[in-house]
Fold this sequence. Notes:
Layout: E1 5-9, H1 16-26, E2 33-38, H2 43-54, E3 57-64, E4 67-73
Parallel strand pairs: 1-2
Antiparallel strand pairs: 2-4, 3-4
Amino acid sequence: MKIDKVLDAKGLACPVPIVKAKKAMNEIESGEILEIHTTDKGAKNDLSAWAKSVGHELLKHDEENDVLKFWIKKG
């Protein structure tokens, strides 16, 4: 998978990861992929709901050493 932009939102609490993800999405083109790293456990529900509500596609998410990773394709 080709990653077009990586967002480091580790250590930030809700809603900051979503705010930063929205800003990062504005910096990439439709069809490109944003990889997000966060330690906010609420991000699992928040990011998937946000992506769906604005027309982006959550490709997958993973957890590695207490860091949640999300790959979202811009709609």
